[in-house]
């Protein structure tokens, strides 16, 4: 009974062998295929649930389960602690993922999900943008230059050849370090330019919003001189009351949520009525011909983060782990050959007659 | 950023050092103290949730979260797969537990929970029995001789000196191996006797029901000649429609659930109206004086399994792990010193100028 453990070092090695670009390409392709093959009766994915608290720090611990029927349960556990970057040099969002085999209930995989969450968030925007963006977009605009901005840039750059990447952040220090961080991607940094919100939103063919705007403080740009065929990836809103895109833009756009139930609760779709919400990501992929015409109109991908995306990423890491023989098998569950004896694992099972591990400190007297 | 991993071998070593009896004593004491100190505003524990399925096997995957406010979230993940014993020589219930620090969201502990679930289920019955059982009970009756029966016997034997242990199981093979399994406890096996339901329920001072009776097939004993001061630990019912104790017994008993909300849904309390349910385990412990009189009457502890119990056990394992320097620190989360760069962990951070782990297979051209 083994559980496969992938540590940070294993993920580093997988990425070293696959290459970051190839990994992103595979993430985009795997997510696209998962959406194309998705059938409602093959998965169960309830809306995430969790604990919100103010002590010892403002924070949130959530679990996002998904059941691939007949196969696996993938459970992502996420912590959101906004004080992390300043107080601990840690990302505000940390997560891990656990996969269980539904034939036996065994925990089969344990791995980080912080990195793959970034990757899948980029990949989801890429899948949506491939269908909804104009052909050959040349200008990418990014509002909010934190961690998510990097993977949006990465994923979209794998699909499109941008002439210009315009970025903006209300935090100047964050904007000014963006070029340097983008160098991890070996991009030509001269393509990246910090600019005003007005220039950015006027020039962008694709606009990604990846801000940490406060509740009630959105939207993060104005509905002014936008291109008529702009595609927006709205990535930042993930909480009731948190929005990034002006409602007037949404009202004249095709708005596609990743997971409608959740997007209505915490995404841009909060601003809309049921009948103003367009197809979800799965419908978009499965009926992409039907939405061809929208390439020439304003479109919005409302990305709140969906458990299916994390499931696909965990499978991808596990696939590469197996291919390269990375990860470590650990024996986690305290079970023995006799399922009726909860203490059986404390006895040496072989060779016969050997001493038990366990030597209780005194003999029980019950008589 | 480290996560402490406790494998089966670590738990074996902890038990080897502490002793199984001492560990059970500590489990009983820790659970008792946790109940005594419990305040509703210091914990959040929603009813467990999960997926039920029929493919590839009949089964259930559940998560049981509890939030110790200001400190930890403990998340237990449980699989229930009744085909495990026959098909895989595994217990039908397997579980693991994950603990997260609520100041940062870091996963701090990973460990098995299969063994500690057995222990805490025994310990919970011991805590309830200490308050509700007659003084000096001499005959323990156990109906259902599977894994849970062993820890009921163990826990109760740590509190009371029984003259006789009467056991019954509809599966004769299960009953006949019970003595042998009980030898793990170094008990005098001559005290244990297989007998009829009638003799068992007539003679028992404490009766534990630990069956896997099917839905709709309970109760598992008759309301016939029970002692007037019998205490029952009803452990088996954990599913809507699954019950073990005759309703007529419940109606003239003080019925104490571990976690009322859950017991009403899937425990013996299913058979009762709200006003027929007595104090829960916490109230029982906190107001034990008030319930002294019930030692001479029939009482029922309705044990469905509560996340607080698992939280206490995880803390106990972690306490001993730290004391003995057992467990292994692993680096799970893929993070770097720069929380704004999700790819930072792929670069060697030091010494300066060293080569990145990551060598993408081709240079990105975006211009």
Helical content band of chain A: 25-40%
The parts of chain A where pLDDT drops under 50 for at least 5 residues are 349-367
According to DSSP, the number of beta strands of chain A is: 15
Shape of chain A: globular
Q: What is the rounded distance between the termini of chain A?
A: 38 Å
Give the C-alpha Rg of chain A: 23 Å
Average of per-residue pLDDT values of chain A? 93
What's the SSE blueprint?
The structure is a homodimer.
Chain A: E1 3-6, H1 8-18, H2 20-37, E2 43-44, E3 49-53, E4 59-68, E5 72-80, H3 84-88, E6 93-101, E7 107-112, H4 114-132, E8 139-143, H5 147-159, E9 164-168, H6 172-176, H7 178-182, E10 192-194, H8 197-203, E11 206-209, E12 231-234, H9 247-251, E13 254-257, H10 260-266, H11 281-286, E14 299-302, H12 307-324, E15 328-330
Parallel strand pairs in A: 1-7, 8-9, 8-11, 9-10, 11-12, 12-14, 13-14
Antiparallel strand pairs in A: 1-15, 2-4, 3-4, 4-5, 5-6, 6-7
Helix pairs in contact in A: 1-12, 2-4, 2-12, 4-5, 4-12
Description:
2 copies of one chain form a homodimer. By secondary structure, chain A is α/β, with parallel strands linked by helices. Helix content of chain A is 32%, strand content 21%. Chain A has helices spanning 8-18, 20-37, 84-88, 114-132, 147-159, 172-176, 178-182, 197-203, 247-251, 260-266, 281-286, 307-324; strands spanning 3-6, 43-44, 49-53, 59-68, 72-80, 93-101, 107-112, 139-143, 164-168, 192-194, 206-209, 231-234, 254-257, 299-302, 328-330. In chain A, the strands form 2 sheets. In chain A, strands 1, 2, 3, 4, 5, 6, 7 and 15 form an 8-stranded mixed beta sheet that branches. In chain A, strands 10-9-8-11-12-14-13 form a 7-stranded parallel beta sheet, with helices on both faces. In chain A, strand 3 (49-53) and strand 4 form a beta hairpin. In chain A, helix 1 (8-18) crosses helix 12 (307-324) and helix 2 packs across helix 12 (307-324). The longest helix of chain A is centred in the middle third of the chain and has 19 residues, at 114-132. Chain A is globular and about 75 Å long. Chain A starts with a strand and ends in a 37-residue tail after the last strand. Mean pLDDT of chain A is 93; it is low at 349-367. At the A-B interface, helix 1, helix 2, strand 3, strand 4 and strand 5 of A face helix 1, helix 2, strand 3, strand 4 and strand 5 of B.
């Amino acid at each position: 009974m083994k559980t496969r453990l992938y540590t940070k070092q294993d993920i580093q090695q997988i990425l070293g062998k696959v290459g970051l670009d190839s990994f992103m390409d595979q993430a985009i392709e795997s997510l696209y295929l998962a959406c194309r093959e998705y059938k409602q009766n093959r998965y169960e994915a309830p809306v995430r649930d969790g604990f919100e608290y103010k002590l010892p720090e403002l924070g949130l611990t959530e679990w996002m389960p998904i059941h691939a029927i007949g196969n696996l349960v993938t459970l992502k556990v996420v912590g959101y602690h906004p004080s992390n970057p300043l107080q601990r040099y840690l990302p505000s969002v940390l997560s891990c993922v656990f996969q269980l085999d539904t034939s036996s209930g065994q925990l089969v995989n344990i791995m980080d999900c912080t990195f793959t969450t970034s990757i899948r968030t980029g990949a989801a925007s890429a899948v949506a943008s491939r269908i909804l963006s104009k052909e050959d977009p040349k200008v990418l605009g990014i509002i909010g230059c934190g961690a998510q901005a990097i993977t949006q840039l990465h994923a979209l750059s794998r699909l499109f050849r941008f002439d210009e990447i315009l970025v903006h952040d209300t935090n100047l220090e964050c904007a000014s370090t963006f070029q340097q961080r983008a160098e991890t991607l070996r991009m030509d940094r001269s393509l990246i330019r910090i600019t005003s919100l007005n220039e950015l939103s006027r020039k962008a063919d694709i606009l990604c919003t990846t801000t940490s705007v406060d509740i009630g403080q959105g939207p993060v740009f104005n509905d002014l001189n936008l291109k008529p065929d702009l595609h927006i990836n709205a990535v930042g809103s993930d909480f009731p009351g948190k929005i990034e895109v002006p409602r007037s833009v949404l009202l004249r756009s095709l708005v596609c949520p990743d997971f409608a139930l959740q997007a209505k609760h915490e995404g841009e779709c909060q601003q809309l009525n049921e009948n103003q919400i367009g197809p979800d990501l799965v419908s978009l992929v499965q009926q992409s011909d039907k939405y061809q015409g929208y390439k020439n109109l304003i479109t919005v991908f409302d990305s709140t983060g969906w458990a299916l995306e994390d499931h696909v990423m965990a499978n991808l890491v596990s696939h590469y782990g197996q291919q390269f023989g990375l990860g470590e098998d650990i024996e986690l569950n305290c079970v023995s050959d006799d399922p009726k004896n909860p203490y059986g694992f404390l006895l040496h099972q072989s060779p016969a007659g050997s001493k038990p591990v366990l030597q209780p400190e005194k003999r029980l007297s019950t008589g």
